[in-house]
Design brief:
CATH topology of the largest domain: Immunoglobulin-like
Structural class: alpha+beta
CATH architecture of the largest domain: Sandwich
Number of helices: 3
Strand content: 25-35%
Number of strands: 6
Distance between the termini: 75 Å
Shape: rod-shaped
Length: 228
């Protein structure tokens, strides 16, 4: 019985675990799924604050098949010698980009130096996260699934979820049946051995009885011979 329980535990440990699907998109990093389009910078002089502001505007497009959120954009400004002048960041808390959607952004920060010092700029995605939502639910261009395809999907999901359990139960029942069959065969062998031992005891007892009777006859015959 201990061997049977050990085998069952081993089989339960080997059962596949049906994990929740993780929408990872076309790229392992969500930042690689976002692409910049039409990025420009401009300068605005605020007379009330006697300051110049750098404005970085552009469009960010989601090229993956999943929803992207938690987007943070960084704009780096360089001088004529490619030295860093300033870094501006903007975090879009409520931005959620569905597949193929665009996000128009604007980063509005005070300039660190005069406008003439700004020669070039670089933009990059600091952070972005995939939101685990299938593209079928988020894309309005995807046609609705037919009834037959939905039924096939449900049957497939049911098989994936419950088939390992039924396989495990079948193996469990087979092991119990096999163990009980081996036990019954052992009992029959023991019963036969006991029966053989009983027969051997009966034969031994008969031999002893016949031997005693023969000895008694021989003794009686010797006594009669001595008397005569």
């Amino acid at each position: 019985m201990k061997k049977l329980l050990f085998a069952a535990l081993c089989l339960s440990a080997l059962l596949p675990v049906h994990a929740a699907s993780n929408c990872s998109g076309d790229a392992p990093d969500a930042r690689e799924a976002l692409a910049f389009e039409d990025v420009r910078i401009s300068f605005v002089n605020r007379k009330d604050q006697s300051a110049t502001y750098v404005i970085t505007v552009g469009v960010l497009r989601n090229t993956s098949a999943c929803v992207v959120e938690g987007i943070q954009i960084e704009a780096r400004h360089l001088d004529g010698e490619k030295r860093l002048i300033d870094v501006h960041k903007e975090y879009f808390y409520n931005a959620t980009l569905k597949p193929g959607e665009d996000l128009a952004f604007r980063i509005y920060e005070p300039a660190a130096q005069a406008q003439s010092a700004y020669a070039s700029y670089q933009t990059r995605i600091v952070s972005a996260n995939y939101k685990c939502a299938p593209a079928q639910e988020t894309s309005s261009e995807t046609p609705p699934a037919s009834v037959s395809s939905k039924g096939a999907t449900q049957w497939g999901k049911w098989l994936v979820d419950w088939l390992p359990l039924y396989v495990f139960l079948g193996i469990w029942i087979f092991l119990i049946y096999k163990y009980s069959g081996n036990r019954s065969r052992m009992m029959r062998i023991l019963e036969r051995q006991i029966e053989l031992m009983e027969r051997q005891g009966e034969l031994t007892e008969r031999q002893n009885t016949l031997g005693n009777a023969l000895i008694e006859r021989i003794a009686a015959a010797l006594e009669e011979r001595n008397k005569s």
